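Incident log, structure service

09:12 report received: a user says their structure output differs between two submissions of the same chain.
09:20 pulled the input from the user's history:
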Amino acid sequence: MSMQPSPWPEVPAGTARVARRAFRKGTLAMRVRDELGAWCPDEAFAGAYGVRGAPGISPAQLAVVTVLQFTEDLSDRQAADAVRGRLDWKYCLGLKLDDEGFDFSVLSEFRGRLVRGEMEAVLLEVLLARLAGLGLVGAGMRQRTDSTHVLGRIRQVNRLELAGETVRAALEALAAAAPGWLAGVIDVSWQQVYGQRIDDIRLPDSAAGRAELAVQYGRDGYRLLRQVRSPGAPAWLRDLPAVEALRRIWVQQFCLGHDGEGGEKVIWRGDRQGLPPGRTALVSPYDLDVRYSEKRGRGWAGYKVHISETCHEPDAAGRRAAPNLITSTLTTPAPAADSEMTEPVHDALAARGLLPGEHAADSGYASGELLLAARARGITLLAPLRAGSSPQSRSGGYTADMFTIDWENKQVTCPQGAVSGSWSPSHSKGKPAIYVQFAGGTCRPCPARAQCTTATRNGRSLGLHPRPVHEAITAARAEQAGQPWRHRYRIRAGIEGTIAQATHVTGIRRARYLGLPRTRLEHNTAAAAINLIRLDAWWTGRPLDRTRTTHLQRLQLTR
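09:34 re-ran on a clean worker, output below:
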């Protein structure tokens, strides 16, 4: 199938007349067509289509259908039915009244093309380019960012269930791809163990029984991997995704040892053998991108999405100059820290020409280094720095900011007037640092020793950032203690409402698709849908949500 770019079709007169008669006040889809026109050109999807072959359905129309689908949280089948039967969607797409639309499977194929072409963000980018032309988004605007958790499209299982289901998934894939070959390497006992989903069987209650079952799963998994890589097996079997998942999960969950009699034994990994950290631990054979993480006591297996949006404060009449619009969504594995995403968020916004002048975020996105990096881009990072974690910070003792630093002479003076004995450049967590040590003979007789250090032999030690970072942190903390900064920072709170809208309207709390690339596509499409919903509310002057009012407030008193 090839793409042959064509002008965005005009709305047929018959479709426009009937749609206007049926929807006198219009609908979101109709207003999007009226206000934005041909906002999605075919040329934007050239990288996902070939240049030879029979012409296919316009990718621009499929893109608009995909975004409209997310505005109403529809399935593929429901979206295809809407194209076929709804007047307002025909109006938006420029279709004739008798247009029969397309099969719902076309939407899945379209998403697959975008993922294979690494164009997961194209739907949002095309819409933002159109909005930038209208002056609704642009560089220098205030923006805010926050993240939320996303549940993967998997069932969360324990380690024993993971082992059994991984073998079963590999057997299912091999049975479908090479049934004759598989029948020659397994017997009927495998059907009895792996014939049904592992979560449908009752696992042993005792720890010994579970360990024995885990070893059986491990032994079967190793045998299957060896058979797949044997000389008589088709070479392409080892490239099946389920077989690759088996190999990777077995590396993490099992190892081989000696049984003392010249043979080998299968060992189910524990603390002694070493288990992988959460950043790399695979938790499902069906989605190898899903990871487990915890935050504030809540654990989940899936991803994390970082949402950025413009933020305009309303005037005295409650009207905004432009709606708050999502400018970026970045999806990562669940364990990724917010601080790791500050610069990628800025990179994504810079690529779209939408770098903010002021960027509000929570403390997870801030550090001294990130403040300086943002400043180099011309961005004021409006984010509180985390409080110190030293014992002195928790007990009210002498914290590092109470010491006087002489950068030229490389000396530090404590609140009691003592001078440090050594100044050593070093590294901490891969970043440059300075290690300062006070002599034990200086600190032991100090009357304020209990407020400063608990060391019995040595004196107080300090870990300092390099001078530019240290001064940036000091200045930021001084500014954040004032009321003007706190008043400016209140703008960040609105991002919580955006996350709530995205989860309730488009359903991003639970991933629709398997794999990180498809989930990224989902989140960018959801962001485009939220933007259309907000634009429609702005065009019509209708609030996004019904506000709660009491019976007394509803009385229209004049005096």
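09:41 both user submissions now match this output. Likely a transient worker issue. Closing.
09:42 reviewer note: The two ends are 70 Å apart (CA to CA). The chain has a mean pLDDT of 88.
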